[in-house]
Amino acid sequence: MEGERGMETLFQDGKEEVLQAWFMDDGEEDQRLPHHCEPKKFVSLDKLADLGIVTWRLNAENHENDEDLKKIREARGCSFVYTVDMHPERLPDYEAKLKSYFQEHRHTNEETSYCLEGSGYYDVRDKNDCWIRIAVKKGGMIVIPAGIYHRFTLDTSNYIKANLFLTKPVNSSSDRPGDDLSSRKETFETFLRKETDELGVEAR
């Protein structure tokens, strides 16, 4: 069963589950709910890698002095970092910004997100235009490749603090147009690549 294999690939070493992925249902309930299919259909890291999505599990308690994080940033050219602190009591226009982040869009450059506290969901389209939801918790790091349609939302905890690492000071974005499946395939052919991690930092 694909779902069971996915869970084994993600968490076979028994460590804390800071990254987990699954295919989403078509429900229109609160975006902050898990939106699992019935039965649940989990997605492995190999499946994410096929979409160009690279993930790591790092030590968020030591993120300021983490040598593994430094290696990743240097290898990917992530010279710019921005801290996002999303909480209803601390972020002005919280609901409006949450709605904005959930608008499907893509960037001209890759975006790397590292969860320092809290949790949230990154939703990405696969090559068949289906949504995959990636749950990220403290210590989880994820690379969203340039050109891939995605969106972000908090989960029901309503809180995340994360560092966004960029290769340029501004990562231009565009909301999804009314494109068809053929243009979606062109996007994957143009922008997405399957990467082999040669950093000496184990991708998880």
Automatic annotation (TrEMBL):
Molecular functions (GO terms): acireductone dioxygenase (Ni2+-requiring) activity; acireductone dioxygenase [iron(II)-requiring] activity; iron ion binding; nickel cation binding
HAMAP family: Salvage_MtnD_euk
InterPro entries, sorted: ARD, ARD_euk, RmlC-like_jellyroll, RmlC_Cupin_sf
Cofactor binding note from Swiss-Prot or TrEMBL: Binds either 1 Fe or Ni cation per monomer. Iron-binding promotes an acireductone dioxygenase reaction producing 2-keto-4-methylthiobutyrate, while nickel-binding promotes an acireductone dioxygenase reaction producing 3-(methylsulfanyl)propanoate.
Signal peptide: none
This protein's GO CC annotations: cytoplasm; nucleus; plasma membrane
Top-level taxon of the source organism: Eukaryota
UniProt KW keywords: Amino-acid biosynthesis, Cytoplasm, Dioxygenase, Iron, Metal-binding, Methionine biosynthesis, Nickel, Nucleus, Oxidoreductase
This protein's record includes keyword Metal-binding: yes
Cofactor(s) annotated in UniProt: Fe(2+); Ni(2+)
Name recorded for this polypeptide: Acireductone dioxygenase
CDD domains assigned: cupin_ARD
Protein task: Catalyzes 2 different reactions between oxygen and the acireductone 1,2-dihydroxy-3-keto-5-methylthiopentene (DHK-MTPene) depending upon the metal bound in the active site. Fe-containing acireductone dioxygenase (Fe-ARD) produces formate and 2-keto-4-methylthiobutyrate (KMTB), the alpha-ketoacid precursor of methionine in the methionine recycle pathway. Ni-containing acireductone dioxygenase (Ni-ARD) produces methylthiopropionate, carbon monoxide and formate, and does not lie on the methionine recycle pathway.
Pfam families reported in the protein's UniProt record: ARD
Similarity comment: Belongs to the acireductone dioxygenase (ARD) family.
Residues the entry annotates as binding Fe(2+): 105, 107, 111, 150
Subcellular localization: Cell membrane; Cytoplasm; Nucleus
Residues annotated to bind Ni(2+): 105, 107, 111, 150
Reactions this protein catalyses: 1,2-dihydroxy-5-(methylsulfanyl)pent-1-en-3-one + O2 = 3-(methylsulfanyl)propanoate + CO + formate + 2 H(+); 1,2-dihydroxy-5-(methylsulfanyl)pent-1-en-3-one + O2 = 4-methylsulfanyl-2-oxobutanoate + formate + 2 H(+)
Record pathway: Amino-acid biosynthesis; L-methionine biosynthesis via salvage pathway; L-methionine from S-methyl-5-thio-alpha-D-ribose 1-phosphate: step 5/6
GO biological process: L-methionine salvage from methylthioadenosine; methionine metabolic process
Main location: membrane
The enzyme's E.C. designation: 1.13.11.54, 1.13.11.53
